[in-house]
Amino acid sequence: MRIFISGFGNIGLGFFETLLIRETFLKNRYKDDPVTVVGVVDSKSYEYNDDEYKICGFCTIGSKKTTGRLHKDRNSLSCREIMDMVDFDLLIEAGPTNITDGGEGLENIRHALRKGKDVITVNKGPLALAYSELSALAEKNGCHLRFEGSVGGGMPIINLCNEALVGQRIISIQGIFNGTCNLILSRMDSGIPFEQALREAQQLGYAESDPTYDIKGIDAASKVSILANSVFNRNVTFSDVSVTGIDTVTGEAVRMAAEKGMVIRHIGEISNDKLEVAPRLIPKNHPLSVSGSLNKAQVITDMAGPITVSGRGAGKSETGSAILSDLIWIMDRRNA
Amino acid sequence: MRIFISGFGNIGLGFFETLLIRETFLKNRYKDDPVTVVGVVDSKSYEYNDDEYKICGFCTIGSKKTTGRLHKDRNSLSCREIMDMVDFDLLIEAGPTNITDGGEGLENIRHALRKGKDVITVNKGPLALAYSELSALAEKNGCHLRFEGSVGGGMPIINLCNEALVGQRIISIQGIFNGTCNLILSRMDSGIPFEQALREAQQLGYAESDPTYDIKGIDAASKVSILANSVFNRNVTFSDVSVTGIDTVTGEAVRMAAEKGMVIRHIGEISNDKLEVAPRLIPKNHPLSVSGSLNKAQVITDMAGPITVSGRGAGKSETGSAILSDLIWIMDRRNA
Fold it and tell me: Which residue of A has its CA nearest to B167?
């Protein structure tokens, strides 16, 4: 299995490290199909296996970590042009999310699928905007398209719904899909104003310096759109989701909720006729009334009732290991 | 896929109903492999497809529900003898749990695997006592042995660990594996004495008239043993589990715990060097500090940290649908 990684920031590096950690496991599981990384691209630099240079795990990571760059400068090369220089079997798309037009990530995924390559993506933009097109393209070309890490990081919600719960009719999913928002709302429960809670989340490294993407609900809405398409077989895009951010939540509202035994949480909901992200009043003993930065989802099934799952919604090794679970899923089938 | 069902009580019937509910789904998914039930056995009666009689879903269920019996009396016939009268591909073992020697369930599973038939069991006794033998027998004969419904009913803990979390190293699992015990302990939080809480659980249909199996921790310990073998690849049996029941928990202990912000919960824990079921002090904000009859588990992974899952630990359609998920898993592979 020859892997090409597009996007070598926190997540791409995290996945690379995961491969190194699980080297023996993978060697034993796939004796006739060694896992190798044959190409790596980040925003400004790249490297791939050619006569001049062979990618080596520690060397590649070391170069990136010490200089912030891989060995060759991209200059004006597109990621697709670099892909075309390399023989590979599977693309891991871990580039920056672009929720407007999908950006280079969408082009990369299209390009790989058209070449008949399997794709694992944690890049939400392409999935939130063009899921139907991409899954049709994958099917047409006999490729796998997997994206467990795109929703909930280390929380295995997609594989839970589509595999462990196969055979259930899933009636709805409600969940906390953005840990930063939940952290801020949890702090507001203690009487801390929104702005201060946001600053704290930024200082702790949870929120970005421009927190719009999280607090306006854009990130959660992308995930809601992905779940609608992949679990409910709907055909929606990001813009179909009704979105309200947490910047509308006042300290006064939080206090009034508390008086009634409630908390305010930022809940995404998906069903056959609902597609929403909004702050909601939740009873304190409800499964989604949780504090802190975890992601949590409640899946309502027709035969087994409610099933909840929670996990860390972000993080290098968390998301890296979600990519690994997709890789194993694909390799099990390619090597069956 | 010709199915033979051994055990046609609540769970066996529940699975049968699940098949009827999902008839169209199964027909569409496996166009060339229709799912049929070709034999059903309960403790006293049976029926199978022969020239005289064809099993029909409603007819079989109707007979059982109206008369408590299937169409033919077993008399002295063993389930294995009835199995030998029928051509089938897969055994569903849903008979009564026997934790002393595995009982007829263990004999049935051995017999089916020796004949090269796939097996799905929700019967904990055979797994808790003879997991290694049975999984070796399955492997030797090229059969699948699946048992999602044996632990946690509708809570998909085994498939979560072994499939959704494949690639993770699972460090430990802690969980509430018996809903009846958790219901009783939850009621004791409100100051209700153990005996009264137990009576209530019996009146609500959660606890059996002989509640030993639940409150002494035997049921939870069976599940701990199954998880140790199937998720941790250990080679243990029921008797290796250190077990303390909830009948040792006093109202005084519950009150003292509450004063310290704690609750007492009946926790099963599995790791490479632990195998225990016991009442434990749990902080009120801990993920396992839950009330009611749900099952819940916290899985600690090396790369994604803690992942929790919860669901209904018992029930006809819950467990029936867990069997269905195993059936689909097997059929996907048999029809690949």
Answer: A325
